[in-house]
Design brief:
The complex is a heterodimer of chains A (188) and B (120). Chain A has 188 residues and is mainly alpha-helical. In chain A, 67% of the residues lie in helices and 0% in strands. With 120 residues, chain B is mainly alpha-helical. The chains are: A mainly alpha (188), B mainly alpha (120). At the A-B interface, helix 2, helix 3, helix 6, helix 7 and helix 9 of A face helix 1 and helix 2 of B.
């Protein structure tokens, strides 16, 4: 029985759930990850917050059911995102094949005059607009790598893609962003 | 040349990371965790108890049936259940029919218990 004010690590909480069927420990995990996961599912579901929260709930329930299969080889967050990705993909019927192949037309995105940014608007909004122009695979690879700070290997695990494919998505995604966000880059 | 490129790459990565994370506002829980916890399957021990309760009730009903219903009726019930002739089903006594109903219910209860267990 610990009275430490230090929060328990993910691994310790998982061990409690597994060995003591401690639902309070699982509650701590949900509290810890609900915000990033719900932010993430909201992107999948667009503006439909209710659908996004339903999806996030499904993810946590799936995590609870599958906790015995978590072997601790990857970070818990990576495993969580992997489950979220699979559930979202099956719900939205996203074709995994679209991510596994790297189409030639992804290499050099067309530069649309309307999205050449003038540098006077909000950087985040412009970045989101530029991201929206990328392929889904490129968007998710970039978001997971840069926003969620997963390593390239972890992104590959989450998206279920070979590492080389993820690297290509990241490289081409950044190349496209560089073009779309040329005006912001000058300010760097 | 290579190091310039790497530095440029790092600079872009940093800018993208900072800009993306800037909008990563914390989403208030607002009862979300409670809703998740309510939907979690009940602990295995509690599930065992509920299924055990159903099975014990079924067994009790079976023992009652065995002691209260004559052996001949059991034989008739088994014979009826093994036949496919509808007429034969109609010729047996109400006790036999009740017994068959009881057997079918027991099978259903056990099947449902197993199904509930697997679903949870």
């Amino acid at each position: 029985m610990s009275t430490d004010s230090q929060p328990l690590s993910d691994a310790a909480l998982i061990a409690r759930v597994m060995t003591q069927r401690d639902q309070h420990a699982f509650r701590q995990l949900v509290l810890r990850y609900q915000s990033p996961l719900r932010r993430w599912t909201r992107r999948f579901c667009g503006d439909d917050e209710a659908a996004a929260d339903d999806l996030a709930q499904e993810v946590f329930i799936k995590v609870y059911r599958s906790l015995h299969s978590f072997r601790g080889e990857a970070r818990f967050s990576t495993w969580l995102y992997r489950i979220a990705f699979n559930l979202a993909a099956s719900q939205k019927r996203l074709a995994r094949e679209r991510w596994t192949s790297v189409a030639l037309d992804e290499a050099t995105p067309e530069l649309d005059v309307d999205v050449v940014l003038d540098g006077t608007t909000d950087a985040h909004r412009d970045l989101e607009a530029a991201l929206a122009r990328l392929s889904q695979a490129q968007q998710w690879a970039l978001r997971l790598h840069l926003e969620e700070e997963l390593t390239q290997e972890e992104v590959a695990q989450v998206m279920g893609l070979p590492l080389g494919t993820v690297k290509t998505h990241l490289l081409r995604g950044k190349k496209a962003l560089r073009i779309h966000l040329a005006s912001w880059q000058e300010k760097l | 040349m290579q190091s310039d490129k790497s530095s440029d790459e790092r600079e872009l990565d940093l800018w993208l990371t900072q800009t993306l994370q800037r909008n990563g506002d914390y989403i208030e829980d607002s009862g979300f965790t409670d809703r998740v916890m309510q939907r979690l399957p009940s602990p295995a021990s509690r599930r065992w108890l509920s299924i055990l309760g159903v099975l014990l009730s079924a067994c009790f009903a079976g023992v009652l049936a065995l002691t209260l219903i004559p052996a001949q009726a059991w034989v008739e019930a088994v014979l009826v259940m093994s036949t496919t002739h509808f007429e034969a089903w109609m010729t047996f006594s109400p006790v036999t029919m009740m017994l068959m109903g009881g057997l079918a219910t027991s099978v259903l209860v056990v099947g449902l218990s197993v199904w509930v267990w697997q679903e949870e």
